[in-house]
Structure formats: C-alpha cells, structure tokens
Amino acid sequence: MRLKVAAIGAVLISLTTLLIEVWTEWYVDQFLRDGGIGGWLPQLETTGQTAVAYLYVSQAVTFTLSVFGIAALGYWVGLQLDLTSEYRSLLGYFAVGGGSGYLLAIPLMGLISGEVGSWSALSVVFLAGAAVATGIQFALTGLAGAALAVFGFTSVTRQDSIATSDTETQIDSR
Predict the structure, then answer these.
(1) Taking Cα atoms as reference points, which of 10, 9, 15, 20 lies closest to residue 135?
(2) Fewer Cβ in 10 A, N or C end of the chain?
(3) Is this model's pTM higher than 0.85 or not?
(4) Rounded Cα gap, residues 90 and 96, in angstroms
(5) 45 is in which domain, residue-wise?
(6) Selection from 8, 19, 22, 1 nearest residue 98 by Cα
C-alpha cells in the first residue's frame, strides 16, 4: 500500500509541476500577444525580458518542487519500508508514477484547451520524452530520499567518534 501511495504522490507532483509550467507558458503567450502584463505582476524593462524571466522562474520553481517533493515523499516511504529488500519496487513505482503524470497530461491539456484531437506528433514525442526523463529523475530522487531516511540520520555515539579520532591520530603520528 505504501508503494502505491508513493506512485500516486509521484503522479500528483508530476502533474502539478507540469500544470505550473503549462500555465506559465500560456500566461507568457497571452501577455506577449497583448504587449505587456496587467498591473499586478512585476515587469522588467521589455516584454521579452519579462517573458524570459517568468519562464526561468517557472522552471526553477517546478524543478525545486519536484526534487524536494519527491525526496520528501521518498523519505516518508523510506521510514516505513524495509529498503534493503524493496528498493527495486520503490524505484519502479516512483518512475512509473512520475512518468505517468506527464502521460496523463496529454488528454488533460487537450480537455482544458478544448482541442482534444489536435496534438501534433512532435508534441506527443516531446511529452513522451519528458515522461521518461521525469520518471528517471523521480526514481533516483525518491530513492535518495528513502535512503536518507534509512541511512542518513544514523546516530554516531560519542564513543564511536572518540575511537575514530584516536585511530586517525595514531595513523597521522606514524
């Protein structure tokens, strides 16, 4: 059940980041057509600079959201799983979940735009490639989060650190 929650969480994070990207691109397209932004968002010196800035900010936000979201989800799952025996399954669930978010976006964006059958072959190939890349990113980041839960916060006792210091001192003195 926890692995399914991981996959569903990956789908939701993937969909959220894609929708942020798509909304930003749509909004930038709108204000490029209109020649500027409305009054409530800041604007740089030119409309082109503003468009590029908003697209870069959108990319930074979605990348950060996806990495930290999946790492946190992986950490949560890692606290509950025996990672040594279930890491392959966890990788698969994160990869499929992350990639599925992009693949689900094809019909979802068609419904939002009202143009269900108007996708070009290039758009489909682009989204399929993005789905594979996102699946790989989510699998590795999710596993890193789970590994952090299992191995990252092991406590080192004072005796262990003293013993390590003494050993290093003896090696340095030779």
Answers:
(1) 10
(2) C
(3) no
(4) 10
(5) 2-173
(6) 8
Q: What is the pLDDT of residue 113?
A: 61
Q: Give the CA count within 13 Å in the CB-facing half-sphere of 151.
A: 7
Element counts in the chain: helices (H) and strands (E): 5, 0
Closest CA relative to residue 37, chosen from 53, 21, 22: 53
Residue with tokens 């993937």: 14
pLDDT the model gives residue 138:
86
- The total of structural domains in the chain comes to 1
What is the overall mean pLDDT for the chain? 76
Rounded Cα distance, 151 and 112, in Å = 43
pLDDT at 125 over 60: yes
The CA radius of gyration of the chain, in Å to the nearest whole number, is 22
Written as six digits, the tokens of 87 are: 């890491």
Give the range among 51-55, 110-114, 147-151 with minimum mean pLDDT: 110-114
Q: Does the CA dihedral 156-160-165-167 come out positive or negative? A: negative
pLDDT of residue 132: 85
